[in-house]
Automatic annotation (TrEMBL), chain A:
<protein>
    <submittedName>
        <fullName>ABC transporter permease</fullName>
    </submittedName>
</protein>
<keyword id="KW-0472">Membrane</keyword>
<feature type="transmembrane region" description="Helical">
    <location>
        <begin position="233"/>
        <end position="254"/>
    </location>
</feature>
<dbReference type="InterPro" id="IPR000515">
    <property type="entry name" value="MetI-like"/>
</dbReference>
<feature type="transmembrane region" description="Helical">
    <location>
        <begin position="132"/>
        <end position="154"/>
    </location>
</feature>
<comment type="similarity">
    <text>Belongs to the binding-protein-dependent transport system permease family. CysTW subfamily.</text>
</comment>
<keyword id="KW-1003">Cell membrane</keyword>
<feature type="domain" description="ABC transmembrane type-1">
    <location>
        <begin position="66"/>
        <end position="254"/>
    </location>
</feature>
<feature type="transmembrane region" description="Helical">
    <location>
        <begin position="103"/>
        <end position="126"/>
    </location>
</feature>
<feature type="transmembrane region" description="Helical">
    <location>
        <begin position="65"/>
        <end position="91"/>
    </location>
</feature>
<keyword id="KW-1133">Transmembrane helix</keyword>
<dbReference type="InterPro" id="IPR035906">
    <property type="entry name" value="MetI-like_sf"/>
</dbReference>
<keyword id="KW-0813">Transport</keyword>
<dbReference type="Pfam" id="PF00528">
    <property type="entry name" value="BPD_transp_1"/>
</dbReference>
<keyword id="KW-0812">Transmembrane</keyword>
<feature type="transmembrane region" description="Helical">
    <location>
        <begin position="12"/>
        <end position="45"/>
    </location>
</feature>
<dbReference type="InterPro" id="IPR051789">
    <property type="entry name" value="Bact_Polyamine_Transport"/>
</dbReference>
Amino acid sequence: MTLLRKAGASWLPIYAGLYLLFLYLPVLLLPVFSVNASAIPVFPLKGLTFDWYRSLAGNDALINALWNSLLVGVASALLATVLGICAARAITRYRFRGRRPMTAVIMAPLFLPEIIIAISLLMVAMQLGLGLSLILVIFGHVLICLPYSATVLISGFEGFDPSFEEASADLGETAFGTLTRVTLPILMPAIISSLLVSFTISLDEFIIAFFLSGSEPTLPIYIWGQLRFPAKLPGVLALGTLMLLASLLLLTFAEMLRRRAAKRTQLDGGFHA
Amino acid sequence: MLDTVSAASKPMIEISGLRKSFGNFEALKSISLNVQEGEFFSLLGPSGCGKTTLLRLLAGFGEQTAGTIAIDGQDMTGRPANRRPTNMVFQSYAIFPHMNVEENVGYGLKRLKLDRQEEQRRVREALDRVELGALGKRRANELSGGQRQRVALARALVMRPKVLLLDEPLSALDKKLREQMQVELRHLQKAVGITFILVTHDQYEALALSDRVAIMFDGQVAQVGTPKDIYQNPVSRKVADFLGGMNFVDAEIAEENGVSLTLDAAGFGRVRAPKPQGYQSMGRQITLGIRPERLRVLWDDDQAEHQIGGQVIDRHYFGEVTQLIVEIPGFKAPLAVTETNDFGADDIPVGSAIRLAYDPDALVAMND
Ligand SMILES: Nc1ncnc2c1ncn2[C@@H]1O[C@H](COP(=O)(O)OP(=O)(O)OP(=O)(O)O)[C@@H](O)[C@H]1O
Ligand SMILES: [Mg+2]
């Protein structure tokens, strides 16, 4: 019995290690092959080169797609977060009729296949005679980001004592001043999380962008297009590596911001006199 | 009876016919009250009687259903919280967690657009006043409960309000700290001279701190008066009960004139007592009350002009005092007697016969 447990205990780290390797090895191969001198991603490696990275810089189509993606990501994150703030405030502060159905509607896209959302939006756009554009993509992305941003924000708002706002008003501050000096700063950690989650979801979303972006591809659409040409593969690998790095940096930065804000606003924990 | 405050003072708060309903529920039922300038005034009552509701209406949170509030002669109807000459100390203190102590205290001053030095001077002054001078850079999560309470006080006082509203500011503190803060609160109020309205459900706090107290039940004011006045002359059984122990005895009205009643009560014989406020002649029965500490144990051969005999049926030891439960022949309920332990009241055996002395002036007639 103890022997078994001992054996289990010594095997557990190995199992965990293998598991992580299995999950992340493919991702780790990306940077390795992106600096490989050969265009074909097989071992053994042929030698070190940064040509693939250099080729990215002069690629207008790629830079265009990157720009589109950033635009869509930032716009979706901002919109989803603003809407999420309104929804979270209403749901946590007021007891009104239709509160539960409303929550359900906000959460619904979580359970709808993206392809259904994409097709429905496409149909609506066709019916209204709207051309396909990034605006439609943003619209779709807000829809799928909202459940996540609302969840993050609702939990943020739940810890928010309404008497903070009353105290501010009591000290002579206007409603707008209270919003900017008290409410938003205290909720900053939740807002940052919501922006980050939404931006990340939008950045790598494929199906909706594929259906609705028309002649303005986002980065995932561009990459998918490139995969048809074997010669372009190393360039895609280089691009993927850069994206990996960028998202790591972004995550670290946002988490640092969030922690700093959270540490400042946390009421319990920390030092007690 | 409102004239216990000096005639020179003027009313700072005038509340008349104030009502507040939440849906069908009437939280305040026609409240009329005056509070003088510079007064330490308490709202005392059990949980749910509407104290917070009244305080919030004074601060400008929520709108009254009917009636008016005037502060310093100005009608406050429709005026929002940020434009009222009141400041509030919240029960949860509501210290802004993203700011340090100085920023919290200076929060309201920022809008006044003072020059930097004047602003800093006022923040310093307020912090020194509550003895927090050394902690200006601390954050809310680095403060103890008592310190937070002081920050909340400083943050409100720095605005120099005409009225400071305090909603159970001490209830979150432990007993020792609470007693210390009560003394400080009283000193602070005397030092700044601002009108204080304190909400509390702790009768000792209200009695110890206030110039006057309003006792509330079920959205109504039952009695207003100085602490001594309401403790010694409660108008009703409810008020008497809420302010500490009281023995109730049934009495019969023998005679009635303009200001006093002549009563017959078993054991006490014929006594005369002032009419309670709001007395309405309703039959011949009335309740007579006497506080347990106004009964005194007579030892050995001691004699008193007014005395009553009985048997000890129970005894409770409280450290500095002992409470004896004494059964008196002819009484419906036994009397509680509180006696200091100097002479050995804690050694009186249960079952022994005992004589009690009382002062007839300590007997109060009360409405039901
Ligand atoms: N926003 C509201 N909606 C509905 N009912 C309310 C609301 N605020 C207060 N009440 C009710 O009004 C009554 C008085 O409430 P209030 O908070 O003034 O009591 P309180 O005297 O301050 O009690 P406590 O000592 O428990 O704080 C209570 O019965 C309460 O349930
Ligand atoms: Mg209350």
